[in-house]
TrEMBL record:
Keyword check for Repeat: yes
All residue ranges annotated as the Beta/gamma crystallin 'Greek key' domain in the record: 2-40, 41-83, 131-173
The family this protein is said to belong to: Belongs to the beta/gamma-crystallin family.
Domain of life according to the entry: Eukaryota
Keywords in alphabetical order: Repeat
Originating species: Ataeniobius toweri
Protein's name according to its UniProt entry: Beta/gamma crystallin 'Greek key' domain-containing protein
Pfam families linked to this entry: Crystall (PF00030)
Length: 175
């Protein structure tokens, strides 16, 4: 398991909370989060309790302000560690229609632009057979983030997206 420290103020100042396990409700530990230090592991933080709302996937490192993890606010209400149960291979299959219909794209590499690589702007469903992945709604790993672990996603809302737009995606390789 990893370790993550949340700070209420920017540049690792103010009240802090050290966490080393999944937590569905962080509101008793701090009221806002403006900087984070990830000492080990890959973490998903959520803007709402019970692993809901916008997601941000953080690898080991220091995030001196919430813009560094592309946050839209200072709200962090739950977190969980991404478990390294995937080995060292990555594979996913994207579909242009819900329920695994339409054009199919197989991928095993990071893709900075889904449109440039596959002429695809939307993915309505997906199957992840190997590895853990992060989808972004904008090219070059920008915008809203969505964690996809091994499994079937019949529609884009299954991975937490409000629309099927996909700009880029990458493998999670650091654990």
């Amino acid at each position: 398991m990893g370790k993550i420290t949340f700070f209420e103020e920017k540049k690792f100042q103010g009240r802090c909370y050290n966490c080393s396990s999944d937590c569905a409700d962080l509101h008793t530990h701090f009221s806002r989060c403006n900087s984070i230090r990830v000492e080990s592991g890959v973490w998903v933080i959520y803007e709402r309790p019970s692993y809901k709302g916008f997601q941000y996937i953080l690898s080991p490192g220091e995030y001196a302000d919430n813009q560094q993890w592309m946050a839209f606010s200072d709200s962090v209400k739950s977190c969980r560690a991404v478990k390294n149960i995937y080995g060292s291979s990555w594979k996913l299959r994207l579909y242009e229609r819900p329920d695994f219909g339409g054009q199919v794209v197989d991928c095993s590499d990071d893709i900075p632009s889904a449109y440039d690589a596959y002429k695809m702007r939307e993915a309505y469903s997906c199957v992840v057979t190997d590895g853990a992945w992060v989808f972004y709604d904008l090219p070059n790993y920008r915008g809203h983030q969505y964690l996809l672990e091994r499994g079937e996603y019949r529609q884009h809302s299954d991975w937490g997206a409000s629309s099927p737009g996909i700009g880029s995606f990458r493998r999670i390789t650091e654990f």
